[in-house]
Specification:
By secondary structure, the chain is mainly α. It contains 16 helices and no strands. The longest helix has about 45 residues, at about 30-75. It is globular.
């Protein structure tokens, strides 16, 4: 009897094992296929993640290099805007206006001379229409700036509205004299300079208004900071542009504007100097014609001599 029970147990074990192998064996290739597919999918996901990390790091390095180049180029404006913005904030608070108006004007108006003028007009009780008209006359020079930057801004894309809004005298001076590095995007470089310049101005206005609201200052002569900033930019222009024609045209415009219309001195001087520069454009860009023709003749003579010496 024990032998019978033992034999039955062996038969049951063998039959159950064979049945289990019968059920699993056909499914083993299918399970292996699913496992390989999951591994391949996981490898593709890891590859995409690595590519995204590389692109992200390269874009971050590109942005940092653009900001570094723009910051290096805008250091003169940084020194001037911080100082001038502090002077404006102190002047605004000394005129009895609320401190928050200085950073607000730096964001919305962003025009140094016009903001100084607006403080005086608001203090004297001028109307909104009068302030808008005088601001338009004072900033009419920006139309001349815009005409000279039509080509650089034509491919600015989504940055174009902000580049137009942020075009101040100092920003114009940088954009027209400094060439971006060859490995950087020109539009992004111009946008970085414009953004940094407005940040400098905003920080200066904020600091000046906060300090002016906390302490009492004598603000006499602080408006000269604007003139000092223009002197600094003129020095950079002289270092970049070695030809005397632009400076002679500006001097001519200033002298004539004093006699024509002292009240609209800046606008008249800009119109006259721009006209003079338009007349002297070929001379400024191409150089003296005699030198060029002489160089061509000498080169042709040298070529003819070399051809005559050949056997």
């Amino acid at each position: 009897m024990c032998i019978t029970i033992f034999l039955r147990a062996i038969c049951y074990f063998v039959s159950s094992a064979s049945c289990h192998s019968y059920l699993i064996a056909p499914q083993a290739p299918l399970l292996r296929f699913y496992w390989l597919e999951s591994q391949e999918h996981q490898r593709k996901i890891e590859k995409k993640k690595r590519i995204m990390r590389i692109k992200k790091s390269s874009s971050q390095s590109g942005r940092s290099s653009i900001l570094h180049a723009a910051f290096k180029a805008s250091i003169p404006v940084l020194l001037g805007y911080i100082t001038l913005g502090i002077a404006f904030g102190l002047t605004l608070v000394a005129a009895g206006l609320p401190w928050w108006l200085a950073p607000f004007m730096a964001l919305v108006i962003y025009a140094g001379a016009a903001q100084f003028m607006a403080v005086g007009l608001i203090q004297s009780g001028a109307g909104l229409l009068e302030i808008a008209l005088l601001t338009l006359i004072m900033n009419a020079r920006h139309m001349v700036y815009g005409l000279s930057l039509l080509e650089p801004f034509s491919k600015a894309g989504r940055w174009k509205p902000y580049l137009i809004f942020g075009l101040t005298d100092e920003t114009y001076g940088l954009l027209t004299t400094i060439e971006p590095p060859p490995d950087l995007d020109k539009t992004k470089f111009y946008a970085a300079i414009t953004v940094l310049n407005q940040v400098y101005w905003f920080v200066g206005c904020m600091v000046g208004s906060l300090v002016g609201s906390a302490f009492l200052f004598n603000t006499t002569g602080l408006d000269f900071a604007l003139t000092a900033l223009f002197i600094v930019l003129l020095v950079d222009q002289v270092r970049a542009v070695k030809k005397p024609e632009p400076y002679l045209a500006a001097l001519l415009g200033c002298v004539l504007a004093l006699f024509i219309s002292p009240k609209n001195f800046l606008l008249v001087a800009l119109v006259i100097s721009t006209g003079a520069l338009a007349l002297l454009r070929e001379r400024i860009e191409g150089g003296p014609r005699g030198t060029a023709s002489q160089g061509v003749s000498e080169k042709s003579k040298q070529d003819s001599v070399e051809k005559g010496d050949r056997p």
